[in-house]
Write a structure and sequence with these properties.
The chain has about 150 residues and is mainly beta. It is built from 1 helix and 7 strands; from the N terminus they run αβββββββ. It is globular, with a radius of gyration of 16 Å. The termini are far apart.
Length: about 150
C-alpha cells in the first residue's frame, strides 16, 4: 500500500526540519507517533524551552524528553498577514498562537488546518500535528469547549 503525504497548508515542504541529528529530534520522533514530547530538566524536572541548554532553576545541562498532555490554553495570539512567495503557501491571513501547555511549557504554533482568525486569550486548545515534508510538527488541532 502506498502512503500519500499531502502538502502542508501553510509552508512549502522545502522548509521541513531535518529530523536526524537535530536537537529537536525527540519532538519530531514523538510527533510521528502522534505524541507530544517536550524537554524537562534532568536534574530538577523543571519544564524547559525547546532551545534551552541550561536549566534556569538548577543549572543542569542534561535534558529529559517526556510525553506530555497535548492540551493547553491560549496565552496570546495574532493574525499574520505576511506572504512569502515560494515559502508561505496560503494567500490568506493565518493565526500564530502562543500556547501555555498543562505541562508548563510554552509553544508558539499555528493550526493544523487553514484559519484566518486567532483564538481568544484563555481559549482551551488541543495540540495535534501538521505534516511538513513528511515531518510531523505540533499545531493547534482544535479549539476546546470552554
Amino acid at each position: 500500500m502506498t502512503t500519500v503525504t499531502l502538502a502542508d497548508w501553510l509552508l512549502d515542504d522545502t522548509l521541513a526540519p531535518t529530523v536526524h541529528g537535530d536537537s529537536l529530534a525527540p519532538l519530531y520522533e514523538a510527533a510521528a507517533r502522534g505524541e507530544l514530547a517536550l524537554p524537562f530538566c534532568a536534574g530538577c524536572a523543571q519544564p524547559i524551552e525547546l532551545d534551552q541548554e541550561i536549566c534556569d532553576n538548577c543549572g543542569e545541562s542534561e535534558t529529559d524528553w517526556r510525553t506530555v498532555e497535548s492540551r493547553g490554553v491560549v496565552h496570546t495570539a495574532t493574525v499574520m498577514h505576511r506572504r512569502e512567495p515560494g515559502l508561505v503557501r496560503t494567500q490568506s491571513p493565518y493565526p500564530i498562537v502562543d500556547i501555555e501547555l498543562n505541562s508548563g511549557h510554552r509553544l508558539v504554533l499555528t493550526t493544523t488546518h487553514p484559519a484566518n482568525t486567532a483564538p481568544a486569550i484563555g481559549t482551551a486548545v488541543r495540540i495535534g500535528f501538521r505534516h511538513l515534508g513528511g515531518v510531523a510538527i505540533p499545531a493547534i488541532d482544535n479549539l476546546e469547549d470552554q
